[in-house]
Write a structure and sequence with these properties.
26 strands, 25 helices, eight-stranded mixed β-sheet
Length: 784
């Protein structure tokens, strides 16, 4: 070890440089001279956090316990990792084997780039034993791989492949890892049978009565048959026993089954297997006829077909297992850190599969790190969330509130805002790590689940990995930083500044009306206080188009407040202390609560009528069209317009320009342009561009020019009472027939669910709902 004295926080601290055991073994003399057997203590220095982790593992092995990686902490300035905790494996209570042990070390990154141990707890609350064999850092010998018998790829965007080889038993450790691997592919029973694989590729056809030892074996067989015949396979529906909820049958379908994707054409080919009392599986139903051209034996040029790692029933399933006997070159992928506890995967995967039996449109996807044979990130969205995205997916908040504190699971949500300006769920995820690759996979999966329609704008953390992934997956979207994160960074970086500067800083940000004004006031402020060399102020100014209101007003954000904190969709239902056993229940409770609030607003908008406050025809027009919440916002703008004066400053042909200022306030003024030919108008406040509602300044000009009814272009359908049907109507031209059919299915299903909900509340309402549907059926020419 190397030791040196450094001065920190006003006193001298002895800093010792530590090396992992394998390094010390090569430096025996130095190790002996400095007491290499010494225990960890405050001041111990490491080159990297990984080096500290290895050191603690060695210490743990020698002492008689196991170590694992605990919390990490990030800098509020640039989001980089500033400190890490390594804890006893029995820390916490999430598993039966844990005892809440408090033993740990914490290392903190210094300005020099070194990591120094600054906190330590050596006492354990459990017995210590000899566990060195289990935690040794000595690498195990790896035997040379035998010829590949089965290979799968799991993500076309990353080089991730896994070889399952019968001779590689030691590297796989046990069939348990294989079971987990195939469960994440939504089959989840049994292990790969290489013997049956050789049978499958022989080209034998399936038939009723064909038996298999496991569901995976059946899946591989059907995949091999599909490759010979010339089509791809997806996992279809599964059916469960009403007695013990175990899986009783499965369907494997042609990838072109259904109409929920442009590539789908309603193909009816499938194979269904049924579980027997003996534990085996038998083909009990089969359809070999396809309604599209087949491509026998077609393979990709790289020797492996690319498959996705979606796992979904009904609507979007996964093209699962690709067989290839000629693959000799396996790309190696580096194992990544995973912040999701292993106990979360069986819980969530079981929940996803049970949801598939209830909801045809339920979608989920699993990211796999095949190098380590483990699951990474998970994404899911039910049919209601997917349909909501077709209506309100133009402005999306990617909420990663878990990054604020020590959450037990990195739970993230995609949130939109509906026609009542309420948050609406567009998808959920648990994020394994915070790398760019992880977020790229997540955003691409979300986009695929939402029929490939990117949002117009996205609000997300300013973390570089998130922002880079957003720009890659949604290159045309306007990106805005999370308000809470900006406030945090301002509190941290502006703390030493005088209150006068903070006041002028706030005024510059929130009172500048144009980008020219903002830039001018900002530069004057920086010069006034001599802050040209302030690194943080310089950095945020360079990225001002992502956070400054003057730069954001020209982009549509559906009224998401620029300077307000965003409340997490699930609120207090899911927080940092939510235990594993309560997660699903609280998740569903919070989701149902939000959707019940939406149903109440739907009911109120159709059945309640707000009072008019003016005699303007435009007020009556908007009361008839807008939801209650949106109408009240419009009504306020209309009433406020009476407090403004309007002066024409320019006119040429059909074009006019007006100066609109508030009575008694000369500083509050805006410029409005108006075209008499097509009634186009725009205001310097850009409220319509940002929120989709006309501002008081334009309404004042309309009143002056006696425009009695708002042009339809200024009433966005997303804000109206019947917005739920708007997307299908607006997109009837410009989308494929399959995609349009999927949207119509979602829309009709949503409408039908409301008939069921209200029609079952009483016998009288049931009779009314039934009569309405029966009369509608006659118009649709239903055949009884």
């Amino acid at each position: 070890m190397e030791s040196s004295a450094t001065e920190h926080s006003g006193f001298n601290t002895m800093v010792t440089k530590a090396y992992p055991l394998r390094i010390l073994n090569h430096n025996t003399e130095e190790h002996n001279n400095s007491g290499g057997g010494a225990e960890p203590y405050v001041g111990l220095e490491f080159d990297t956090a990984e080096e500290a982790r290895e050191y603690y593992n060695v210490y743990a092995a020698r002492t008689g316990f196991k170590a694992r990686t605990g919390q990490l902490y990030r800098s509020r300035t640039d989001g980089t990792v500033s400190s890490r905790r390594f804890v006893c494996s029995k820390e916490g209570f999430q598993l039966n084997s844990r005892t809440g042990c408090t033993a740990f070390i914490r290392v903190q990154r210094r300005d020099t780039g070194k990591w120094v141990l600054d906190q330590i707890q050596k006492e354990h609350n459990h017995e210590l034993g000899c566990e060195a064999e289990e935690t040794t850092t000595t690498p195990r010998p790896v035997r040379a791989p035998a010829p590949t018998k089965l290979a799968t790829t799991v993500n076309q965007h990353r080089p991730k492949m896994k070889v399952v080889d019968e001779s590689d038993r030691e590297q796989r450790s046990s069939s348990k890892s294989s079971l987990k691997r195939f469960k994440s592919c939504s089959v989840g029973e049994g292990e790969v049978s290489n013997d049956h694989h050789s049978k499958a590729v022989s080209g034998s056809e399936p038939y009723a009565g064909l038996e298999f030892a496991s569901a995976n074996e059946a899946c591989q067989f059907y995949q091999a048959y599909a490759e010979v015949v010339g089509f791809r396979v997806r996992i279809g529906q599964l059916f469960r026993s009403k007695v013990d909820n175990s899986i009783t049958s499965r369907r494997f379908v042609c990838s072109r089954e259904g109409f929920q994707h442009p590539s789908r054409m309603g193909c009816g080919a499938y194979m269904r297997i049924k579980r027997q009392d003996s534990g085996g599986w038998i083909v009990d139903r089969l359809n070999k006829d396809h309604n599209h051209d087949l491509e026998p034996g077609k393979k990709n040029q790289d020797g492996l077909k690319k498959i996705t790692d979606d796992v979904s029933g009904g609507l979007d399933s996964v093209e699962l297992i690709e067989l290839n006997n000629n693959n000799k070159h396996i790309k190696k992928a580096t194992s990544r850190e995973n912040r999701i506890g292993k106990e979360w995967y069986p819980l969530l995967l079981d929940y996803f599969q049970s949801k598939q039996t209830e909801d045809m449109g339920f979608f989920y996807a699993v990211e796999l790190d095949v190098h380590s044979g483990s699951c990474l990130s998970l994404f899911w969205a039910d049919s209601r969330a997917r349909f909501a995205c077709s209506q309100f997916g133009d402005a999306v908040v990617f909420d990663t509130s878990y990054r604020k504190g020590s959450y037990s699971v990195p739970f993230a949500t995609f949130v939109g805002f509906n026609h009542h300006r309420q948050p609406v769920l567009l998808g959920c995820a648990v994020v394994a790590d915070e790398s760019k690759d992880s977020f790229v996979w997540l955003f691409q999966t979300w986009l695929r689940a939402m029929s490939g329609r990117p949002p117009k704008s996205v609000v997300a953390d300013q973390d570089s990995s998130i922002q880079q992934a957003l720009s890659q997956v949604f290159p045309g979207a306007h990106r805005r930083y999370s308000a809470w994160q900006m406030r945090e960074k301002e509190r941290e970086n502006l703390r030493p500044f005088p209150s006068e500067f903070k006041y002028e800083y706030e005024k510059c940000i929130y009172q500048s009306q144009t980008v020219v004004e903002f830039d001018s006031v900002w530069n004057s402020l920086i010069n006034k206080y001599g802050l040209r060399d302030d690194v943080w102020l310089r950095e945020i100014y360079e990225r001002r188009e992502h956070w400054a209101p003057a730069y954001l007003r020209a982009s549509f954000f559906a009224g998401i407040p620029i300077n307000g904190a965003f409340e997490p969709f699930f609120g207090p239902s899911l927080d940092a202390l939510t235990p594993l056993r309560e997660f699903i229940g609280r998740y569903e409770q919070g989701l149902e609560q939000r959707r019940e609030e939406e149903r109440k607003e739907d009911f109120n908008s159709y059945n309640l009528q707000p009072f008019l406050q003016t005699k303007e025809p435009v007020e009556e027009q908007c009361r008839r069209l807008y939801t209650l919440t949106v109408f009240r916002i419009f009504q306020n703008e209309l009433v406020q317009s009476y407090s403004y004066l309007c002066l024409k400053t320019y006119e040429e042909g059909a074009m006019s320009r007006f100066l609109v200022r508030k009575c008694g306030n000369e500083s509050e003024k805006h410029a409005v342009t108006f075209n008499a030919t097509n009634l186009n108008s725009s205001c310097s406040c850009q409220m319509f561009e940002h929120e989709g509602l006309l501002c008081r300044h334009v309404l004042k000009v309309f009143n002056l020019l006696e425009v009695k009814e708002l042009p339809s272009k200024y009433i966005l359908h997303r804000w109206t009472k019947n917005a739920e049907f708007g997307f299908v109507r607006d997109m009837e031209s410009g989308v494929s027939s399959q995609d349009l059919k999927a949207l119509m299915v979602w829309s009709l299903r949503e409408a039908a669910s409301k008939y069921i909900e209200f029609g079952t509340s009483s016998l009288e309402k049931y009779k009314l709902a039934y009569e309405i549907m029966r009369e509608g059926g006659k118009k649709l020419c239903w055949q009884r």
